[in-house]
Structures are given as C-alpha cells and as structure tokens.
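Progress narrative, Year 2. Work on GTPase Der from Candidatus Paraimprobicoccus trichonymphae advanced from sequence curation to structure prediction during this period.
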Amino acid sequence: MSNKFTVAIIGRPNVGKSTLFNKLIGKRLSIIDDTPGVTRDRLYAECEWRSVKFFLVDTGGLEVNDSDNLFHSEIKNQTKIAISLADVIIFVTEIKTGVVSTDLEIAKILRKSNKNIILCVNKLDNTGKLDINLYEFYNLGFGEPLGISSIHGHGTGDLLDKIVNYLSKKEMPKEDTENIINVSIIGKPNSGKSSLLNKISGSDRSIVSDIPGTTRDSIDLLINYNSQKYNLIDTAGIRKKSRVNEKIEKYSILRTNLAIERSDVCLLLIDAKENFTEQDSKILGLVLDAGKACVIAINKWDLIEKDNNTTLEYEKKLKSDISFMSYVKIVFISAKTGQRVYNLFDFINIAYKFSKTRISTGLLNEFLAQSIVRVPPPTDRGKRLKIYYMTQVSIKPPNFVFFVNKKNLFHFSYQRYLENCLRDSFDLEGTPIRFIIREKSESKTNFDF
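Result:
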C-alpha cells in the first residue's frame, strides 16, 4: 500500500461510512447494514480523482465508551492503525443526531494525529436550502463542515476535490511496477486465516478471535519476502448455506468469491483438528471453477499428537478426498508457532509459475503424438476419435485447444489420461489446466496423428 496515498474514513457506527466508501470507489465492496459494528476490519480500495490515485480505507465504527461491545477494543485498534497510516482523514458525522459525545471524543483522537482532517456531515439527503443544524458541527474544531449525502452522492465531488487538494501538496509516492503475486487466504471460519496473516505480517493486521465469522471483509496486505512481493488477501470464512441466515454473511461469501477471482493463487487453510470436510470440498470447487492455482495448508498441526506415520496418513487420506484436484500441494503448518509458515511461499511461487506456463505448439504436438502411440484414442460404435493437433491459447490457467473429428468421442476418461500425461511431461504442479475441444469443421488443419 505504500506506493500510493492513503485516505481513511473515520467515525462512530452507523453514520454512513461504508455507504460513503462505496460511493467514492464506485462499487459495492464494503458491507452496508444498519447494525452498528458491521464493518470490523480495515477495508482498502483504489480510488482516483483528477488523475490522482489513492487508497481509500473503510474502518469499523469507533465507540469510545462502549465497554459492552465484544469487538470494541479490536475495532478501536484497527482504526488507530488506519489513522496512523493515512495521509488524509475523512471524519464522518451525521445531521440527524447532531454532535454527540462520541463525536467529541473521536475529534480529540483525530486532533492528536496531526493529520489533514476533512469533516463531513452525512445524510443531508435533501438538496436546496442549507440545514441550519450544520453549524453545530463547527464545535468539533475542524473548520467548515462539508455537508454530503453518501446515498445520493450530494457533495461527494466537493469531498474528492478537498482530498486531492491536500494530496497535491504532498510528494507523490513512486509507483511500483514490480510483479506482485495476489494470494487469497480462504477456508472455513476459524481455520486460522487471520492468525496466519498476522504471523506473516508481524503485526495485528486483522482482528483475531476464537469466534467463527470474525473477519467479514476481505483484507489486503502487501508484503515483500525473498525479493518477491505478495498481496495477501484475508477473506471471511465461508459457512454452510444452512448457516448463512444473515444478509451480512451473504455479502461476505460474495466478497470471498470476488477475492478468489482477483487472486493468482488461492491458499486454502484446513483446521487439522477437523480434517477435510464437505465444506472444504465446496470451497475448493470455487477455486477450480475460477481456474486458480492453489496450495493447501493444514493449520494447527502443532495441536495434533503425532507418530512417524501421522503426516503420511493424513496426506494420503486428503489426496483421496481431493482426487479432483490431485495436483494441489499440501503443507503442514502452525500459524500460532510459525512452523513452516514461510515454506508456504515456495509452494505459492511454484503454483504461480506453472499457472503462467506457455508451451509451444511444436512441443505440444510431439507430446500428443507420443501419448496417442502409448494409449490410442477410444472408439465408440466403430468410430474412433481422431485428434488432429493441439495448441495452447492462454495462461492462468493454461488453456489448451484440441482439434478433433467428433467432440462426443473425446470421452472424459481420455481427457483425464492426456491431462495426467501433460502434467508429467511439463511438471504442471499446483495449477488447473483446461481443455477446449473443437471439431475439424471449426479448424482449417489437415494434420492427423
């Protein structure tokens, strides 16, 4: 995140911070709900205005004196981190309640930060005559308040102008053009995703709790390890559908899917104490459908009583359970102790490397000829499958097109045979590969094997 300016949205719960966040970035990324405390972790998104790019940060609502809120101290800590990292802070209040004691306490915290503060009074949804109650907010000590409506967008252009005016006075961070591997950390609730992120980052980057479902927003963390940059995405745990009875949880599932879509490699965490479950299988299915490279980490391995065969037996059983993704590598880790945590990056690098593999058409057809000689194509009712040639058309994941005489003769079993041969010949570890089948009429080739 260091190669762009950062702007943080701060305020007490339910003043419209997440709605404003979504309005400014132009998409529904943050959770919006009337329940105070819904946005728990910091949420980043890129924003651009007048050719100035910056990261916008949505934070959990600050309830300074709320000792009954279970996540109060964690949210307060996350918000303070966001304040410390921000170049500009948007302090959001709302017109309907006026200035309340929590606003005054937050104002004290912000004044100590010595950051550029833009005071916004939200929920001024009616245009026209200025609401006289707006003048009350001068008491917060940040000069003229800016009236906005995050729902309708009134005043957001002026807000962005103010942000850019502050940022234009600062030195623009240099743009980073180095290659970054995007890694989404996925899995069931309470499998240790946030703990792993915190162990890697060396700081309390995400809220950690024993209560399943703590992380509802997807969190990005940019790190540099062994001269390679990684963007780690901590996601909300995906529950069984029968347990998804909150609209908030449904948004989390949607965002987890989006996190998978924008990742290069997915890191699935499995709780060693719970073994592989049907829900883990469904999550892997999402990864497979998205065509993403994958690594599986068996977390909390330090809590398992072991003998000489424990690891081998666990891996053998898991390989059987994930036979539909047998190419995935498995690592046994402990996010708590750090055991083999950094070995994950070796496997992530391998999966990423092979997801980008390009194989020349010449090599592919040499491979195809040898594979067909070894095991001839199948026949059906006297008709034999003919494969004229194959070529690679894309990467991430590698996609291969086969030109054949009849699609219906190219049975799944023979496709699986060719996939296994392809993986053995070109070491395609950690990545799915896809086959596209086209009939001869769709091509102009006369080649035949």
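Residues 37-42, 244-251, 445-449 have pLDDT under 50 and may be disordered. The first strand starts at residue 5 and ends at 10.
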